[in-house]
């Protein structure tokens, strides 16, 4: 049997070593998750929401603002810029695994000194003077052999960072869409409350006028007049507060759209109904949350990147081998630049080993392991907080919807009471004061219902955001660029 030659054995050893990479191989943490959310109240067989969940509210203007915000928002622009940075980092890490090459050339002229050893030697050569010209053209190539996988671990980290940046864009879009929808609903709720408050002011003014007339005739006491006047002042004071809150929300919406405050005020001047709460649909399980919520995907990818960097740090224990070569020409005259006599070549084998620097390597490995432990804690905490967000949002949605239904029933009852009071007033049974008082109670309940309706819609938005938006799972990328 023929024994392999030394070069063959060397190449086989290099191939074997190049297939290995030092450091721990990444394994996604296995996090325990309950089978379902505590606050789940979704009927079986309900359809899962789409990625464009904002369309479920049935408000075309809401959809318009969300789409504009995703295109114009500056937080999304920052996230997209981070993706471009991560892609460039991945390109660099990929290029580090490949040979590098350069082409260089130079032309030089010199006037030699005869008082230097080099000048004396050159001028003593027959036919040589003190003036010297040189021309050189070379092609250089070099390649660091990644025998222990340090460069491959670096690329592994770059791939994970790139994937995290892409998940970060999805998280930014989800956050911006949710904030835009929430701000829009808040504006509509404040507009509804302002209309109710102005009706309350008008009703209370009529009541003050009626009591003042009775006071002037000596029928009503001054105490009663002052009480209704104070109630009027209290209601009037709520109007500027609501107007200020509306203006703040309008300015916030402009910022979300990436434009100057005040831009969209005219567009939203016309009062529209508060968007109704859509049916939520199948929300899945806590385990599904890990696969679809983009901020959790980003946190898990950062964990994978930190794990790969442990291997990069450990690789510093081992020697770095590189090979290089040069092919070119060098001459003192341009006419002989491409002749056989001007040809030159060079081969280089390099070794770099931090043999006496293991103390620093130890510290670098400890830093990498510490960063990995921190990333793991961040990921676990992010999962817990995501579950908390879902439970809180589901609870708020359920409770606010119940509150809205209760107040709707109260509003219907008070509307009937107001109608009965007005009928009795026309029959001369009760005074106008009772009618106006019934109006005031009805408007107060309408205001409370408008608040509950607004908060229910906001809770629905918070639920979509907590659950990761639409149920289109964000799949991992393979790191190709």
In total, the number of strands is: 4
**CATH hierarchy: architecture:** Up-down Bundle
What is the CATH topology assignment? Answer: Outer membrane efflux proteins (OEP)
Radius of gyration: 38 Å
Estimated helix fraction = 55-70%
Strand order of the largest sheet: 1-2-3-4
Strand content: 5-15%
Give a topology summary.
Blueprint: H1 6-18, H2 60-72, H3 74-95, E1 100-111, H4 117-124, E2 131-145, H5 150-216, H6 222-256, H7 286-292, H8 294-314, E3 320-331, E4 343-352, H9 358-426, H10 432-466
Antiparallel strand pairs: 1-2, 2-3, 3-4
Helix pairs in contact: 2-5, 3-5, 5-6, 5-8, 5-10, 8-9, 9-10
Please outline what is shown here.
With 481 residues, the chain is an alpha+beta fold. 60% of the residues lie in helices and 10% in strands.
Can you describe what's shown?
- The protein is of the alpha+beta class and 481 residues long.
- It has a single domain, classed as Outer membrane efflux proteins (OEP), CATH 1.20.1600.10.
- The protein is built from 10 helices and 4 strands, in the order αααβαβααααββαα.
- It has helices at residues 6-18, 60-72, 74-95, 117-124, 150-216, 222-256, 286-292, 294-314, 358-426, 432-466, and strands spanning 100-111, 131-145, 320-331, 343-352.
- A 4-stranded antiparallel β-sheet has the order 1-2-3-4, with no helix packed on it.
- α5 (150-216) runs antiparallel to α6 (222-256) and α5 packs antiparallel against α10.
- The longest helix is centred in the last third of the chain and has 69 residues, at 358-426.
- It is elongated and about 135 Å long.
């Amino acid at each position: 049997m023929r024994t392999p030659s030394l070069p063959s054995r060397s190449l086989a050893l290099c191939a074997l070593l190049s297939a290995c990479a030092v450091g721990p191989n990444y394994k996604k943490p296995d996090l325990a998750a309950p089978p379902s959310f505590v606050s789940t109240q979704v009927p079986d067989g309900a359809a899962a929401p789409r990625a464009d969940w904002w369309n479920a509210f049935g408000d075309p203007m809401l959809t318009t603002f969300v789409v504009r915000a995703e295109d114009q928002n500056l937080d999304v622009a920052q996230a997209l810029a981070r993706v471009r940075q991560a892609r460039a980092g991945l390109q660099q890490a990929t290029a580090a695994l490949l040979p590098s090459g350069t082409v260089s050339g130079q032309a030089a002229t010199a006037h030699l000194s005869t008082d230097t050893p080099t000048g004396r030697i050159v001028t003593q050569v027959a036919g040589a003077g003190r003036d010297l010209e040189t021309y050189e053209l070379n092609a250089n190539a070099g390649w660091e052999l990644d025998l222990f996988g340090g460069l491959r671990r670096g690329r592994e980290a770059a791939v994970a960072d790139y994937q995290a940046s892409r998940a970060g864009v999805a998280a930014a879009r989800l956050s911006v869409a949710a904030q835009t929808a929430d701000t829009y609903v808040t504006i509509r709720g404040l507009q509804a409350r302002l209309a109710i408050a102005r009706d309350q002011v008008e009703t209370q003014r009529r009541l003050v006028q009626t009591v003042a007339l009775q006071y002037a005739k000596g029928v009503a006491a001054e105490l009663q007049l002052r009480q209704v006047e104070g109630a009027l002042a209290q209601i009037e004071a709520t109007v500027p507060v609501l107007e200020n809150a509306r203006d703040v929300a309008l300015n916030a919406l402009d910022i979300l759209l990436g434009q100057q405050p005040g831009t969209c005020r005219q567009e939203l001047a016309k009062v529209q109904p508060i968007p109704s709460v859509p049916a939520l649909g199948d929300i899945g399980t806590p385990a599904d949350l890990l696969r679809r919520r983009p901020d959790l995907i980003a946190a898990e990818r950062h964990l994978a990147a930190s794990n790969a960097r442990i291997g990069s740090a450990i690789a510093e224990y081992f020697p770095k081998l590189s090979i290089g070569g040069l092919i070119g020409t060098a001459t003192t005259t341009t006419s002989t630049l491409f002749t056989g006599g001007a040809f030159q070549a060079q081969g280089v084998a390099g070794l770099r080993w931090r043999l006496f620097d293991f103390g620093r390597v130890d510290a670098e490995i400890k830093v990498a392991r510490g960063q990995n432990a921190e990333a793991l804690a961040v990921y676990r905490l992010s999962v817990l907080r995501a579950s908390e967000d879902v439970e809180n949002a589901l609870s708020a949605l359920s409770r606010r919807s119940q509150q809205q239904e209760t107040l709707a029933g109260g509003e219907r009852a008070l509307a009937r009471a107001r109608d009965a009071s007005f009928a009795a007033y026309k029959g001369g049974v009760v005074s106008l004061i009772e009618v106006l008082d019934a109006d005031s109670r009805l408007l107060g309940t309408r205001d409370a219902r408008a608040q509950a309706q607004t908060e229910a819609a906001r809770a629905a938005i918070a639920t979509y955001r907590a659950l990761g938006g639409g149920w289109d799972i964000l799949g991992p990328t393979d790191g190709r660029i």
